[in-house]
Amino acid sequence: MLNRNTLVTTLGLTLTLALALPAPAHPGLGQDAKAQITQRYREFDALILANKEDTVLKWFGTYLTSDFFYASRDKNKYPRAQFLEMVKNQMAATKKVTEAVTKVGSIAVKGTVATVHADSSTKALITADSKTLSLVDKDKTVDTWVLQKGQWKLKSSVQTDADTKMTPVEK
After folding, report:
1. DSSP of the chain, one letter per residue?
2. How far apart are CA 142 and CA 58, in angstroms?
3. Domain hosting residue 149, numbered range
4. Mean of pLDDT values over 46-75
5. Tens digits of per-residue pLDDT, 103-144?
6. Are 135 and 126 in contact (CB under 8 A)?
7. How many domains does the chain have?
8. CB-count exposure of residue 132 (10 Å: 0-12, 13-18, 19+)
9. What separation in angstroms does the CA of 66 have from each of 24, 80, 169?
10. Is 37:18 a contact under the CB 8 Å cutoff?
11. Which band of pLDDT confidence, cut at 50, 70 and 90, is reported for residue 22?
Protein backbone atom coordinates (compact mmCIF):
# COMPACT_ATOMS: atom_id res chain seq x y z
CA MET A 1 0.00 0.00 0.00
CA LEU A 2 1.37 3.41 -0.91
CA ASN A 3 1.16 6.48 1.28
CA ARG A 4 0.09 9.81 -0.19
CA ASN A 5 3.61 11.30 -0.61
CA THR A 6 4.96 8.25 -2.41
CA LEU A 7 1.85 8.09 -4.54
CA VAL A 8 2.11 11.72 -5.66
CA THR A 9 5.78 11.30 -6.55
CA THR A 10 5.31 8.04 -8.43
CA LEU A 11 2.25 9.27 -10.26
CA GLY A 12 4.32 11.90 -12.01
CA LEU A 13 6.89 9.25 -12.89
CA THR A 14 4.45 6.82 -14.36
CA LEU A 15 1.98 9.03 -16.09
CA THR A 16 4.27 11.51 -17.82
CA LEU A 17 6.52 9.20 -19.67
CA ALA A 18 5.82 8.09 -23.24
CA LEU A 19 4.91 4.51 -24.05
CA ALA A 20 4.70 3.38 -27.61
CA LEU A 21 5.08 0.77 -30.27
CA PRO A 22 8.58 0.08 -31.56
CA ALA A 23 10.05 2.73 -33.84
CA PRO A 24 10.94 1.90 -37.43
CA ALA A 25 14.35 0.33 -37.91
CA HIS A 26 15.86 3.54 -39.37
CA PRO A 27 14.04 6.50 -37.91
CA GLY A 28 14.92 9.81 -39.47
CA LEU A 29 15.88 13.00 -37.80
CA GLY A 30 14.05 16.32 -37.82
CA GLN A 31 10.37 16.11 -38.76
CA ASP A 32 10.40 12.29 -38.78
CA ALA A 33 11.80 12.27 -35.25
CA LYS A 34 9.15 14.72 -34.09
CA ALA A 35 6.37 12.60 -35.59
CA GLN A 36 7.75 9.40 -34.06
CA ILE A 37 8.19 10.89 -30.60
CA THR A 38 4.75 12.52 -30.71
CA GLN A 39 3.27 9.14 -31.61
CA ARG A 40 4.93 7.61 -28.55
CA TYR A 41 3.11 10.09 -26.33
CA ARG A 42 -0.19 9.23 -28.03
CA GLU A 43 0.45 5.54 -27.48
CA PHE A 44 1.32 6.33 -23.87
CA ASP A 45 -2.15 7.70 -23.26
CA ALA A 46 -3.78 4.55 -24.65
CA LEU A 47 -1.54 2.21 -22.68
CA ILE A 48 -2.06 4.08 -19.44
CA LEU A 49 -5.82 3.85 -19.95
CA ALA A 50 -5.43 0.07 -20.38
CA ASN A 51 -3.48 -0.04 -17.06
CA LYS A 52 -1.60 -3.27 -17.85
CA GLU A 53 1.58 -3.51 -15.83
CA ASP A 54 3.30 -6.14 -17.99
CA THR A 55 2.93 -4.02 -21.16
CA VAL A 56 4.18 -0.88 -19.44
CA LEU A 57 7.18 -2.59 -17.86
CA LYS A 58 8.10 -4.33 -21.12
CA TRP A 59 8.10 -0.99 -22.89
CA PHE A 60 10.20 0.65 -20.20
CA GLY A 61 12.65 -2.24 -20.38
CA THR A 62 13.05 -1.65 -24.09
CA TYR A 63 12.83 2.13 -24.43
CA LEU A 64 14.58 3.58 -21.40
CA THR A 65 18.31 4.10 -21.72
CA SER A 66 20.46 2.18 -19.25
CA ASP A 67 21.34 5.49 -17.55
CA PHE A 68 17.75 6.83 -17.54
CA PHE A 69 16.64 8.94 -14.59
CA TYR A 70 13.51 10.72 -13.45
CA ALA A 71 13.79 13.94 -11.46
CA SER A 72 10.79 15.14 -9.49
CA ARG A 73 9.89 18.78 -8.98
CA ASP A 74 11.20 18.59 -5.41
CA LYS A 75 14.65 17.73 -6.86
CA ASN A 76 14.65 14.03 -5.95
CA LYS A 77 16.39 11.97 -8.61
CA TYR A 78 15.41 8.36 -9.32
CA PRO A 79 17.71 6.12 -11.38
CA ARG A 80 16.21 3.55 -13.75
CA ALA A 81 15.96 0.60 -11.32
CA GLN A 82 14.34 2.69 -8.58
CA PHE A 83 12.00 4.30 -11.10
CA LEU A 84 10.84 0.88 -12.38
CA GLU A 85 10.11 -0.27 -8.83
CA MET A 86 8.07 2.88 -8.23
CA VAL A 87 6.14 2.26 -11.45
CA LYS A 88 5.22 -1.24 -10.23
CA ASN A 89 3.99 0.18 -6.92
CA GLN A 90 1.98 2.91 -8.62
CA MET A 91 0.32 0.51 -11.00
CA ALA A 92 -0.57 -1.82 -8.15
CA ALA A 93 -2.35 1.08 -6.40
CA THR A 94 -4.23 2.19 -9.52
CA LYS A 95 -7.70 0.71 -9.77
CA LYS A 96 -8.84 2.46 -12.92
CA VAL A 97 -7.58 5.27 -15.16
CA THR A 98 -10.46 7.28 -16.57
CA GLU A 99 -8.47 9.89 -18.51
CA ALA A 100 -4.91 10.21 -19.76
CA VAL A 101 -3.95 13.07 -22.07
CA THR A 102 -0.43 14.16 -22.96
CA LYS A 103 0.06 17.37 -24.92
CA VAL A 104 3.41 17.91 -26.57
CA GLY A 105 4.18 21.60 -26.35
CA SER A 106 7.40 21.51 -28.34
CA ILE A 107 10.05 19.14 -29.65
CA ALA A 108 13.52 20.43 -30.48
CA VAL A 109 15.76 17.98 -32.35
CA LYS A 110 19.53 18.54 -32.54
CA GLY A 111 21.29 15.64 -34.17
CA THR A 112 20.54 12.53 -32.13
CA VAL A 113 19.01 14.35 -29.13
CA ALA A 114 15.42 15.56 -28.83
CA THR A 115 14.10 17.76 -26.03
CA VAL A 116 10.36 17.55 -25.42
CA HIS A 117 8.20 19.84 -23.29
CA ALA A 118 5.09 17.88 -22.34
CA ASP A 119 1.96 18.53 -20.26
CA SER A 120 -0.03 15.59 -18.97
CA SER A 121 -3.39 15.32 -17.31
CA THR A 122 -4.62 12.13 -15.68
CA LYS A 123 -7.71 11.12 -13.76
CA ALA A 124 -7.80 7.83 -11.89
CA LEU A 125 -9.19 5.87 -9.00
CA ILE A 126 -6.40 4.75 -6.68
CA THR A 127 -5.91 3.04 -3.36
CA ALA A 128 -3.79 4.78 -0.73
CA ASP A 129 -3.72 4.18 3.01
CA SER A 130 -6.50 1.56 2.56
CA LYS A 131 -8.84 4.15 1.02
CA THR A 132 -10.16 4.62 -2.50
CA LEU A 133 -9.35 8.07 -3.79
CA SER A 134 -10.22 10.03 -6.89
CA LEU A 135 -7.01 11.46 -8.27
CA VAL A 136 -6.56 14.36 -10.68
CA ASP A 137 -2.94 14.91 -11.67
CA LYS A 138 -1.43 17.57 -13.94
CA ASP A 139 2.28 17.52 -14.68
CA LYS A 140 4.78 19.35 -16.85
CA THR A 141 8.01 17.63 -17.81
CA VAL A 142 11.06 18.20 -19.94
CA ASP A 143 11.96 14.85 -21.47
CA THR A 144 15.22 14.07 -23.25
CA TRP A 145 15.19 11.42 -25.97
CA VAL A 146 18.31 10.06 -27.67
CA LEU A 147 18.68 8.09 -30.87
CA GLN A 148 20.41 4.78 -30.09
CA LYS A 149 20.86 2.02 -32.65
CA GLY A 150 18.07 3.44 -34.79
CA GLN A 151 15.53 3.85 -31.97
CA TRP A 152 14.49 6.90 -29.95
CA LYS A 153 14.98 6.11 -26.26
CA LEU A 154 14.07 8.12 -23.21
CA LYS A 155 17.18 9.26 -21.32
CA SER A 156 15.56 11.50 -18.73
CA SER A 157 12.30 13.02 -17.60
CA VAL A 158 12.43 16.10 -15.38
CA GLN A 159 9.20 17.25 -13.73
CA THR A 160 9.01 21.05 -13.79
CA ASP A 161 5.53 21.53 -12.34
CA ALA A 162 2.82 19.41 -10.78
CA ASP A 163 -0.66 19.78 -9.35
CA THR A 164 -2.16 16.68 -7.76
CA LYS A 165 -5.51 16.51 -6.03
CA MET A 166 -6.86 13.44 -4.24
CA THR A 167 -10.32 13.22 -2.72
CA PRO A 168 -11.96 10.29 -0.93
CA VAL A 169 -14.54 8.36 -2.92
CA GLU A 170 -17.83 7.98 -1.09
CA LYS A 171 -19.03 4.40 -0.91
Report:
1. ---HHHHHHHHHHHHSS---SPPPSS--STHHHHHHHHHHHHHHHHHHHHT-HHHHHHHHHHHEEEEEEEE-TTS-EEEHHHHHHHHHHHHHHEEEEEEEEEEEEEEEEETTEEEEEEEEEEEEEEEETTEEEEEEEEEEEEEEEEEETTEEEEEEEEEEEEEEEEEEPP-
2. 23
3. 4-168
4. 88
5. 999 999 999 999 999 999 999 999 988 899 999 999 999 999
6. yes
7. 1
8. middle
9. 21, 7, 39
10. yes
11. very low
pLDDT at 27 > cutoff 70 = no
Edge-to-edge strand list for the sheet holding 94-110: 77-79, 64-71, 151-168, 131-148, 113-128, 94-110
**pLDDT of amino acid 3:** 53
Q: Within a 10 A sphere around the Cβ of 92, how many other Cβ atoms?
A: 12
End-to-end CA distance of the chain: 20
Q: What is the CATH number of the domain that holds 42?
A: 3.10.450.50
CB 14 within 8 A of CB 170: no
